[in-house]
Specification:
single chain; 302 residues; Jelly Rolls; Arc Repressor Mutant, subunit A; six-stranded antiparallel sheet
């Protein structure tokens, strides 16, 4: 059993007031009038995954959300990036809440990635944002991002413009560049735009791991996909991160296992099946070796 996936169409339908570009990119103004506790959705408090990238800029008030079961109380002048891979639970929103929400489909993001004007993406940055989805902003930074969102919204409304697609994409890229600049300066420096060959292989490995870690547990699979030897792949990862390829794979499996084990309706056997272990016993031994407790003990303690 896997977490329910909320598809983009359903997500868009739940937003009654929004600006949309071809239903692949939406901007929504959200305020405290939304009543999450009395939503008609029967699974409103259950963990789920979104079939889209959702970005929330909080201008006033607060809201509470759990991402991969980590609770966040999001205050004013904050930015939250919710990935399709996050296990999400939306909980409370204050009556004085005011914010902007951007919803981007996977298709739009892929189209953007291939756009000639787009700066090459960094999957390691994506992974960093996945691990640290909440950022507190200075008021001026929040205002700058809000301005970028309003510019994007204007381009989305120009539906008679012959080059609307390019206008929308470039405005979205402008927003991402401003966001990237803010994030980079908070880390104390800018990220090098041109990665080395080793760094490119590392990012490609991370993307493969993200897509296949549940069913592919051996280094050989990833090395073959990258057209390099398993030994060279492990050497690259050890050199860049201090972790071997096997350790990366094991850590990814444990992260997925922890998310699944916190899903009440999934049994330990089902988690073992989803992660393609031969049987529950093998999965249990693997989990206890890396976490220190059995899957059932972990579930009870969470």
């Amino acid at each position: 059993m896997t977490l329910p996936i909320i598809e983009l169409e359903r997500l868009n339908q739940s937003m009654t007031s929004r600006d949309s570009y071809q239903d692949v990119l939406s901007i929504v103004d959200v305020n405290g009038n939304i009543d999450i506790e009395h939503s008609d959705s029967p699974d409103r408090f259950q963990p789920m995954r979104l079939d889209a990238l959702l970005m929330v800029l909080t201008l006033e008030g607060t809201f509470e959300v759990k991402l991969d079961y980590v609770p966040y109380v999001v205050g004013p002048n904050s930015f939250v990036m919710i990935m399709p891979t996050h296990a999400s639970q939306f909980q409370k929103i204050s009556s004085d809440f005011k914010g902007r929400v951007i919803i981007a489909s996977k298709g739009f993001l892929e189209d953007l990635r291939q756009n000639a004007f787009a700066r090459p993406g960094s999957f390691s940055n994506y992974m960093e944002a996945r691990k640290n989805p909440y950022t507190s902003l200075e008021p001026a930074e929040a205002t700058k991002l809000d301005t970028c969102i309003q510019i994007l919204r204007e381009k989305m409304r120009e539906d008679t413009h012959f080059f609307q697609k390019e206008l929308v994409m470039n405005s979205f890229i402008g927003f991402l560049l401003e966001l990237g600049n803010i994030m980079s300066t908070k880390k104390g420096g800018f990220i090098r735009p041109t990665p080395s060959r080793k760094e490119e292989l590392f990012e490609q490995f991370l993307q493969l791991l993200f897509e296949h870690c549940k069913e592919k547990h051996v280094v050989t699979f990833y090395a073959e996909k990258l057209f390099i030897t398993p030994q060279y792949l492990s050497l690259i990862l050890k050199d860049l991160t201090g972790k071997s390829a096997n350790k990366w794979i094991d850590d990814a499996l444990i992260a997925e296992a922890k998310i699944l084990l916190k899903t009440p309706q999934a049994t330990v056997q089902q988690v073992a099946d989803i992660l393609h272990f031969s049987d529950q016993s093998t999965f249990g031994k693997f989990f206890k070796k890396h976490v220190g407790v059995s899957p059932m003990e972990y579930r009870k303690s969470s």
